[in-house]
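>> received
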Amino acid sequence: MSTADTARTLPKGRTRRGDANDMAVASFVMGLVGLLVFNIVLGPCAVVLGALALSRDTTRRGRALLGAALGVADLIVLAVLVTANGTVSWSFA
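>> returned
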């Protein structure tokens, strides 16, 4: 498929790089929120979106890397919580 064909399949005003930038930001936000709540889902999503953004050559490379790193941190927090008290959620009581 040529670039002219690819340009026709994307909605007007959208580019692959723009989509990659959006993925980088979404990865960062999911990784950050995942540290506090719902890390069992948001962690892997942050890792995947960060990797996809990097593979699509995002201009927000640092944000994609940080999002992927936060996603990995989410999974580490999940593993610690499961090991420490057998739950997948925070408990301060």
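>> Residues 20 and 52 are 7 Å apart (CA to CA).
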